[in-house]
Design goal:
Shape: elongated
Structural class: mainly beta
Largest sheet: 4 strands, antiparallel
Helix content: under 10%
Radius of gyration: 12 Å
Number of strands: 4
Strand content: 35-45%
Amino acid sequence: MAENSQLTIAEQPQSLDRQGRFDIEVALSSSARRIWAVVITPLGTEQAYELVVP
């Protein structure tokens, strides 16, 4: 991921550094242990992820 990539986690756009890295903390309730993330590459390819927190 480089410039113009987009990342959305828990329906909130996230900032990426030049290498496409990010750092985020998300508050979770004991019943909500899943986070949805969507990555859109500079070419427009979209990939959705479901992250499960143990």
